[in-house]
């Protein structure tokens, strides 16, 4: 395990030795001894937290709503800085699912999460309890990753895939780091704009324009964390100017770019997640031949 220190919190981070059995899945293991109030920064993936330790993570998602234990959160959760996590002696496996495979794995569309934090027990029933027990009994992080990967693969194989055109549109958005002509996507799939927007929203959990905005923000936020200046990030990430970047960062996090640059939720990413996360996020089942003919490079 590798160690990441932020304030009084000491994070121990474990990573799988290889890729998941399912394209579009990344995971990491965390042990946090004293997790104070941690801002959950929006991310263009569905997030699963499978906890098994002595302490239980607590996620506060506004208006006094709290969720303890293992959870699922839709893409973009945490907008405006509304979601915070805390806990002591927390141990968990965190899984990030590309939105185009999330419906099959969850058993419901990400749209049904409706921007909320949902208990995995509500989604998976006794299966959530069984995986928690098995994770606690496992003797190593490697064993835990194998258990979670097998569960994800089994649920994915039994689930309902998204439309190929929707998966293709998502990959175009991710491949362009959010800087794409959204109105052109429908024409390239052969669908009407109304049909693509409706299917994309219902299957991915966000409208295409919002999805592109989130992907662009995520790319910009990680560059800010890496120490790049806001002006350079704004120019390279496709923002009109630095003020435009500032507005988007505040909209998604409730904080300024300078504050976001020091957020531990983002700063721990280089330890926890693959350098090819953008490629993984864009993965999913292959689109239909007509849709995929436009671009098979993502």
Automatic annotation (TrEMBL):
PROSITE patterns the UniProt entry points to: HTH_ARAC_FAMILY_2
| Alphabetized InterPro entries for the sequence | AraC_XylS_family_regulators (IPR050204), HTH_AraC (IPR018060)
Q: Which residues form the HTH araC/xylS-type domain?
A: 177-263
Where does the chain cross the membrane? none
Q: Where is the signal peptide?
A: none
PANTHER family, sorted: BLL1074 PROTEIN, HTH-TYPE TRANSCRIPTIONAL ACTIVATOR RHAS-RELATED
Would you tell me the protein name for this molecule?
A: AraC family transcriptional regulator
